[in-house]
């Protein structure tokens, strides 16, 4: 059985490498030949723990081909579409890439007599498969869905920095489509590959919506704890982590995604929230709760700025160190990172910014160039600083001690992740979610 994966970002490349490691014959296709060349030479264009190793093994085994040649889908029995659906300025998703790939795939489906299954993994708003994808494929292939090929919605739930583990051990498989022989084949394929993983079979629209429901629920859960953490800050002695532990033990709530911080970021949650809000409004529903989540998430950074102004007075000319620019630890991804948003606002206030991040300095430089200073060592990043703000919980920051902080001009820390909450440090210390010590 030959399987093509179209679009080699986090999702596509992780899937290609994992399936190939399970001895499937995989063709990874991406429109960008330079990117393909890099992947063939095991230079991955982003940092994802474990991906390099598994990719190396799969390429050595010769059951993974990486190419920009879409005609290779001709001989495939399955095609996974994992191209990006980025965000337009109005919050809608941009379908240009998926439309283009479906047009090309459609043309080569004309010559494919294997009756392949086309799995849509890209995140698309409900109705997109029915109204956009199927018509493009049918027009360009001259074949009918559920006859010459079968389209199935198969949303992906992997998290960056955990992509390989999530691809190997998904919590569920969602298959959206009609009850046809294609659906039966898909079910057999997934149940063999992931025994004991629940398979949810539903129609296209519901499968598409599950992805948005998933991400908007996660965003809401994070925002809930962030809102409570803001309240806790004004309750002397209170501690948001104890509260999170307390409610997290209730099985109806669950302990994950209750880690209060500067707000959610990344390439998915903010984008999917905006797309869902935009979509709801377009079908006549005002999503009051989702709007409130979005607003609360935006306000998190303003709260940090207000605290800074309260403690430092004007920010103009003040030297501020940002520890962590990646949107979360163990990635170099800074897309929609709260840290980047904070730096932009601080620059508007004419603050002088120095940043440290173990992996994301390269990407951060692409945004700010010479406007800020970049340091590879924490101690250098803190030199002459008047305030350090811990934005991302990299394990490196657990090691912060008086020695590393010695060169700060004003020993003042805002800890958005409560990394140093239990330390005895000679600093003025404020943490998101901790009330004043009593
Ligand atoms: C998310 C979803 O989790 C995943 O299922 C989907 O496929 C893609 O989007 P990802 O973007 O990799 O994954 O990041 P995630 O781990 O969910 O974190 C998102 C943001 O929320 C980060 O900024 C993170 O710091 C923040 N977060 C997460 C918190 O502030 N607290 C938490 O408890 C969890």
Average pLDDT, rounded to a whole number, is 96
Please state roughly what percent of the residues sit in beta strands, choosing from under 5%, 5-15%, 15-25%, 25-35%, 35-45% or over 45%. 5-15%
Spatial ordering of strands, largest sheet: 3-2-1-4-5-6
So how many helices? Answer: 15
Give helix % range: 40-55%
**Cα shape:** elongated
Radius of gyration: 24 Å
Termini, distance in Å? 66 Å
Cofactors, ions, other ligands: uridine-5'-diphosphate-xylopyranose
Structure, described:
- This protein has 438 residues and is of the alpha/beta class.
- It has helices at 10-21, 33-40, 51-60, 96-109, 128-141, 163-168, 181-193, 204-232, 240-248, 269-282, 288-312, 338-348, 361-368, 378-382, 402-405; strands spanning 2-6, 25-29, 64-67, 78-81, 117-120, 150-153, 173-176, 199-202, 319-323, 352-356, 373-374, 387-390, 412-415, 428-431.
- It has a six-stranded parallel β-sheet with strand order 3-2-1-4-5-6.
- Helix 5 links the parallel strand 5 (117-120) and strand 6 (150-153).
- Helix 8 (204-232) packs across helix 10 (269-282), helix 8 (204-232) packs parallel to helix 11 and helix 11 (288-312) packs across helix 12.
- It is elongated and about 70 Å long.
- The relative contact order is 0.08.
- The mean pLDDT is 96.
- The structure holds uridine-5'-diphosphate-xylopyranose.
């Amino acid at each position: 059985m030959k399987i093509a994966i179209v679009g080699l970002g986090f999702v596509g490349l992780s899937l290609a490498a994992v399936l190939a490691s399970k001895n499937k014959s995989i063709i990874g296709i991406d429109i960008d030949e330079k990117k393909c060349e890099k992947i063939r030479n095991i230079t991955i264009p982003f940092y994802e723990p474990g991906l390099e190793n598994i990719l190396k093994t799969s390429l050595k085994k010769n059951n993974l081909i990486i190419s920009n040649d879409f005609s290779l889908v001709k001989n495939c029995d399955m095609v996974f579409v994992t191209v990006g659906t980025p965000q337009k300025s109005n919050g809608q998703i941009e379908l240009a890439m998926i439309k283009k790939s479906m047009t090309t795939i459609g043309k080569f489906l004309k010559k494919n007599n294997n009756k392949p299954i086309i799995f849509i993994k890209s995140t698309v708003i409900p109705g997109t498969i029915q109204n956009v994808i199927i018509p493009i494929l049918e027009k360009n292939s001259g074949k009918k869905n559920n006859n010459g090929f079968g389209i199935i919605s198969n949303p992906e739930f992997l998290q960056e920095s955990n992509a390989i583990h999530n691809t190997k051990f998904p919590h569920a498989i969602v298959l959206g489509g009609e009850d046809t022989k294609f659906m039966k084949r898909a079910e057999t394929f997934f149940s063999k590959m992931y025994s004991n993983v629940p398979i949810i079979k539903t129609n296209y629209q519901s499968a598409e919506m599950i992805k948005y429901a998933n991400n908007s629920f996660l965003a809401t859960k994070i925002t809930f704890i962030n809102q409570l953490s803001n309240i806790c800050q004004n309750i002397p002695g209170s501690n948001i982590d104890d509260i999170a532990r307390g409610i997290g033990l209730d099985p109806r709530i669950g302990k994950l995604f209750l880690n209060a911080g500067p707000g959610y970021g990344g390439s998915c949650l903010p984008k999917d929230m905006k797309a869902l809000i935009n979509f709801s409004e377009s079908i006549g529903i005002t999503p009051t709760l989702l709007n409130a989540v979005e607003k609360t998430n935006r306000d998190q950074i303003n709260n940090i700025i207000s605290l800074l102004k309260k403690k430092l007075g004007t920010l103009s000319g003040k030297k501020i160190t940002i520890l962590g620019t990646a949107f979360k630890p163990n990635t170099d991804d800074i897309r929609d990172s709260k840290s980047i948003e904070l730096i932009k606002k601080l620059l508007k206030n004419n603050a002088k910014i120095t940043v440290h991040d173990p992996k994301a300095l390269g990407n951060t430089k692409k945004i700010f160039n010479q406007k800020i200073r970049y340091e590879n060592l924490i101690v250098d990043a803190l030199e002459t600083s008047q305030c350090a703000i811990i934005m991302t919980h990299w394990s490196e920051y657990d090691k912060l001690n008086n020695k590393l902080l010695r060169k700060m001009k004003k020993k003042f820390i805002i800890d958005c992740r409560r990394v140093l909450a239990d330390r005895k440090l000679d600093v003025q210390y404020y943490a998101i979610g901790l009330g004043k010590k009593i």
